[in-house]
Every structure is written in C-alpha cells, then in structure tokens.
Amino acid sequence: MSINIKAFSLTLIMFIISIALHAQSLSDIKSVKVDQLTDAQIATIVQKAEEQGISKSQIPALAEERGMPAMEASKLATRINQLNSAGVSADEANSGTMAQRQLTDTARIGRDRSEADSLSEEEKKIFGYGLFHNKKLNFSPNLNIPTPQSYVIGTGDQLLIDIYGDSQQSYDLSVNPEGRVYIPNVGPINVGGSTIQAATARIKRELSSIYADLNSSNPRTFMQIRLGNIRSIQVAMVGELQNPGDYTLPSFASVFNALYAAGGPNRQGSFRNIRVFRDSRQIAEVDVYEFLMNGNQQQNVRLQDNDVIMVPAVETRVEVQGPVRREGLFEIQADEDINDLIRYAGGFKSEAYTGRVAVRRVSDQAREVADVSKEAFGSFKVKDGDIFLIGKKLERFENRVQISGAVFHPGEFALFEGMTVKDLIDKAEGLRGEAFLNRATLYRTQQDMTLEIVPVDVKGVVNGTAQDIILQREDVLHIPSKYDLKEEYYVKISGEVNRPGAFAFADNMTVEDLVLKAGGFKESASDAYIEVARRVKDRTNGQIAEIFTIDIDENLEIDSGDEEVVLEPFDHIIIRRSPGFQREKMVRVEGEVNYPGQYTISTANERISDLLKRAGGMNQFAYAKGAKLIRRTEYFVPKSDNEVRSENLREVKENLVKEEGKNTEAEVNMLNRIDKKINDKGGDISNQKGLAADEFRAERVTDVSQSDSTRAAKVEFKTQEMVGIDLLKILENPGSDQDLILQEGDILSIPKELQTIRMRGEVLFPTSARFESGKSFKGYISKAGGFTDNARKGKSYVIYANGDVKRTKNFIFFKDYPKMEPGAEIIVPEKPEREPMSATNWIGLASSLATLGILIDRLAE
C-alpha cells in the first residue's frame, strides 16, 4: 500500500473522529490536541487504521506527515502505547460504562509490588508503620464507583451525557484547558471548577434550548450526566516521608492513596498529625490511628490538583513492653493518657498484672523509674521516650487444693473456709474400690516453700472415727491404690504351647486355664510331663523354688491320680517337648545318581552310604572321586518350628483357595482358622527365642564384626561350606569314619567325570587346561603362562574336586607340589605387601648399628 493511500486513510480516520468529537474542528489536523482525546477516541483511531492495513507504530508518523505538530504526534504515540499496554479495545473503550473508567495521562498509582518492603526490627515495632508496606494493601482509588455529585470537574475529564425519553441522544465531551465543553448546536459551556451537581444543572439549562421538554414541569425527556475517563492531578508530598516529592494521581485519589504512593511516613514521621493544605490553607488533619483503631475514614479527604500533604516529625512516641496484645512503639497526643496507650496496645493479656505499671524515662540528668497505680492511669503525664513495662501476675493460686490417686475424679478444686479432707474426697466423687484406706499422704506447702507431710487415716476420716484435717491453700492429698503398693500379679507359661508368654493372674486360675489362654498344646508337647515352678518367699534352707509335675491330656483333663493345681502369682508352667518327637529333617542328593532330589533323614545315625543307596546309587557317568558334601556352618540360622508351620499353612491356604463362592463350607471354615493362626502374634517367629547356641552364634558374629572396624567389611560369615569326602572309600567300607553321619541341610553332590584343571591367582593368564595324566603341578602352571613376579610360590595349594585341600611343602630350597587329579583347582596366592622403610627407620637402624659397633670395640679392648 502506497504512502498516499495510507495518508488518505489516516485523514479519513481523523475526519470520522472529528464527527464524533464535535468539540474540535478537525478539518485541519494541525489543530488536534491529543490531551483532549479520550481513550475511546484513540482506540477508534487505532481500530480504523488497522482496518486499512496501517500498524499502530505507523499512525504517529503518518499524522505528523499530514501536519500534526511533532509534540502532539509524540503524545499520540505515548497514548497508543498506554492503551495497548492496558489491553483495551475500541469496543471496550466506547462502551461508556463505569467499569471501563481509566486514568488519562498519568502513571498508575502505587509502588512496584515486586519490590518487597523489608522492614527493620525498629520499623516493625512502630504502630501503623506496616500499613503502607503491606503487600496485601495498595490503597488504589476505586475508579468504578457511581459518579459522585460532589466531584469537582477539571481539565481532561470526560463527561458522558445521555438524553432519553421522547428524544434520544448521547454526547461524549472532554473538558478543554479553559474548563469548557462544546455541545454541537449549543456551543461552549463552562464546567471547570464546578461540581457534577452544579454542572448538571447548567448543562440541562443550556440543552433545554434544543430539548424544550427537558425543563418543563411535566417532562417526557430526561438527561443524565456521568464521568467517563477522569483526569490526573498533581499532589505535593513533603515532610517526614519515605519518598517525598510531587506525585501524579487520579482525581479520585484520597490522602491514604497519596501516602501509600509516597511510601508512608518514615521512622521520624508522625501518624497522628498529617496535614492537608489547599490554596495555602489547611483543610484537614489526618490521624491514621483513627483508621487503625476505629476504621474511621472521615479525615481521608479526596484530593484536588495542587494539594499539599505535609507529614511533620513525631512529637511524643513511647514504647510498651510486656503482656499486652500488641507490643511496640506508639505515638501519643497531648490530651491522651495511659488508658489510651493500653487501648492502642490492644489491651492487657490475661496474665498481665493490671494494678500498676512501671515507667522508665530519661529525666534532665539521668534515667529514672516511676510507679503508676491503676488509679493514676488517667492523670499520669506521658513524655516522649517513656518505656511502659507491664508486669505479670504471680504464678500462684489463692484457693487451690488437689487430690490424686484412687478417687473417681482426681484434680484441682477450690478451697473454701473450713474445708476438710473428707470434703475434698466428696468433691472427687468418693474413693475407688482399690483405694488403700490405712494411710494417705497430705503434702503441705509451708511458709518457706518447703514441703511438710501430714499422714491421713483415710478409713477413719471417712467413717468419722478419726479426726478430720482442715485443708490449707496448695494442699495435695494423694490416696494410693492397693496395686501401687505391690507388684502386678502375673503367671508365665513357656515351652510347647502355641502362644507362650506371661498372662495376667486371676484368682482360682488353674494350669488348664493357663494352657487354654496360651492357645493349647503344640503337637510336640509332652502331656505326661508338665512342670510348675513356684516362688519360695521365706525359706532359709537354700531352696529357690517349689516344683510340681502333673499330667494333662490334650483335652486339658488332669490325670486321675493328680490333684488340680490352683496357680499362685508368679507361677511358671513349663510344657516339655515329647522325647520321641522329631521334626522331619531334609537332605538333598544332586548330580549323577539314579534318583536325585530331597530325602528325609530316617534315623539319627543315617550315613552318606545309606543316602546314596536310597538314591539308587551312581549312574555310569558319575565321577566318584569328585563327590563332595556341602554342610551348613554354625552361622546358618535354621527356621523355627513356628516359621515352618506358618509357611506350611500359607501353602495349604494357597491350595485351598478357589474362585469366589466355590469353596465348600468346611473349606471356608478351614481358611478362616488358617488366617487366624497365621496372623496370631504368638506364632510369629519374631516373638520366639531360638536356641541358646543360635543366640551365642549371633553374638559372636557381632563381636567379630565390632572388634576390628577395618576388617569388618572383609569378614564373610559363610552359612555353607564344603566337606572333603572320599566316596570310593565310603562305598568300600560303609559305616567307617569316612562315612559321615548326615545332618539336616546336607547336600551330597556327585559330578560327571571331570577332565580339566583350573588355575587361579598369581599366574600370568588364569585359565583352565585339559587334564593330562602324569602332568605335574608346574606343568599346569606353565600352561597358564607361569608365575607372576608377585606370586607366593611356596604357599600355592590345590583344591580337589571332592573339597580336599593340599598345599605345597617346602624343604630347604626344594618344593614338593601336590599331585594333580581331574577337576582340581590350583590357587597361587599373592605376596603380602611390605612397606618400605622410612627415613626415620633407616636413621634408627644406623644408630643401633653404630652403638653396637662401639660396644663391640670396647669389649675387644
């Protein structure tokens, strides 16, 4: 698009705006005053330009090209940018509603809230100081309010006039620098300096020349005037302010808006005597405390152009310390007293002593302290710098007594004149059944704050047979329970029951009752040998306990020949394991046998040869010389009976559970029983102690680990290890010493015929080599490249396939290396590291040698 077309388009736009304005003759663009254009008119210019393909940045340049003064073109660019930043469209700007009222040619009120006001400790103490530094308050004037009738119209204000009724018309007028608005067919009307109310009457009178019915006694045409966009005003802020200076504010701004814009009074500034001057005359004096204490904004007057706000220095500021709702620094006026000060501090807290206040002040020569009684609060003269110290009430009770122990409602009670121990017991709703009546203790506080104990015959006092005791302030009566004076009674059961442990004692409890509480006998229990151990209280013959043995069958019935044993406190019942009971013990056969797998040890003296026979013997691929036995070490922790039982029950449950609704009633009942037993804490392995040997092993492992923290990381406690066996000799001579008796967890492993030799450790190339009959130890070392420089040859050893180990033997300079067999493994260890001698050691050695030489020389003489 050519520049001529753009210029023509812009001229057309300005002509359209001139029709809307009617207040300016825009046939010549040179006469346009941008300050008198409303935001709605600027938005319309931008909208029309964009419809013609002209960008916002091009509009000022084209306007200047058509004759607009450079200053006005610059103002136009600023107004367009401001409108763009505010995000206001032409439709929004032309709506005319109060919700769209904006400021014209003015910066937004308030400080940048991203700059957080950080207050010093002293500033935080000044009452009211945080009001103008609160992020949640910005005191921005509310522009979206109904047009105030008292609002004084000035240059730049936008007046929106609506004619409605029989006639319909709207006027959008701006007040020019002369304070006038121009109405087509009426002419200029002076409204500057007038209130909305006065301007409305004047405009209505002038418009009646066009709308005759407007001022008739029975009108059918009506008029309404409201503010559109408002002007800005200049206000001077002087005195003790954070940021004094001249501020551009909206014409709706009040004193608080201006104070906030200036950051509020500084540390020396007064919050009580802020003065507002207009035309060199004071029109208001603002007391911020009125707003803070009463919410009163009567003094918060609306500002006008060229108003001056002066914040003087504070005259009288005092500090309040102690238990008040709001400690801090407060400004006091000449006619105020301590009562007003306490009110500003939020009043006393409940713990404050209100009878007097201590005042620290600086006199003409030194510091002094004044005591002000409550009666003198209203007459005491407050001075600048005074510090008011509020004391606390005494931490004591005037009329408290307490009762504790075996009563229904222990606690604190109010003491009345003549109150006795019996009265206090009655207030506590009486004694509980387990109260110890022979003696109670009354703790009494004496004058010197020491305690005195007064014995009380509770039974006598309650029955009236003993003299009652009159209580004093802070008396504490403690009535003990019988159970506080003796051990808690219990009985204990251990051994082969499902839930061993200690249980609460009950009168007339028998052994059968306790077995029932313990969940009954285990399968391993011996019902023919139950032992009851009873404490001996006063024997002097060395007897420690009385022992009873009884027989109880699985139905918890005592043998006909035994008497029923009634238990006493602390009795210990021990259920022995049946001598013939043995949990099955499993071993395993692996490798080249006919029937590999798990086997149960059948007898206590079953041996390797017996196990191999049960496994069907070796097959044709077996290498008997390589057979080995893997056995658990003392560090292996076997599963307890309870743990084994729980695992077996879980397997039973898994095999019983079917799809929902498909289990029989008997199966459902069994599942419930299994769940109960699995979840039973008595069957939890964590609650069962193992054998003493197991515990000892665990302690030994801990001791070894803690004995050397450096070695602890290298220590490995193997739970299984190989035992070297000679299976051929075992088969030749079953039952011999070579034929070991089996233990639980043993694994007999018989490999296939082996054909390799393995080399490990300090050889140049650790590898495996084919076994060759007659080849020596060193021959296989050669196949691995030979020894390394760091090899400890004399300590080399061989691990044979069956687990046997043989080492190299040394005689003078000769070495006898072990013979090699298929499946063997050669291990060449590393030489230990030797630390080189330090300079200090060399010096010490030289000194010793020198001393030795001198000694020899003297002996020779």
UniProtKB/TrEMBL annotation:
User: Which keywords does UniProt give here?
Assistant: Cell outer membrane, Ion transport, Lipoprotein, Membrane, Palmitate, Polysaccharide transport, Porin, Signal, Sugar transport, Transmembrane, Transmembrane beta strand, Transport
Entry's Gene3D superfamilies?
Outer membrane lipoprotein wza domain like, wza like domain
Which residues belong to any copy of the Soluble ligand binding domain? 235-281, 318-362, 490-543, 586-632
Q: Where in the cell is it found?
A: Cell outer membrane
User: In the record, what terms sit under GO molecular function?
Assistant: polysaccharide transmembrane transporter activity; porin activity
Question: What are the recorded Gene Ontology BP terms?
Answer: monoatomic ion transport
Describe the location of the Polysaccharide export protein N-terminal domain by residue ranges.
146-212
Pfam families (UniProt xref): Poly_export, SLBB, SLBB_2
UniProt KW Metal-binding keyword: no
**Domain SLBB as annotated: residue spans:** 400-479
**What does the entry list under GO cellular component?**
cell outer membrane; pore complex
Membrane topology field? Multi-pass membrane protein
- First-listed, main subcellular location of the protein, grouped into a coarse class: membrane
Give the record's family classification.
Belongs to the BexD/CtrA/VexA family.
Protein name (Swiss-Prot/TrEMBL)? Periplasmic protein involved in polysaccharide export
Higher taxonomy: Bacteria, Pseudomonadati, Bacteroidota, Cytophagia, Cytophagales
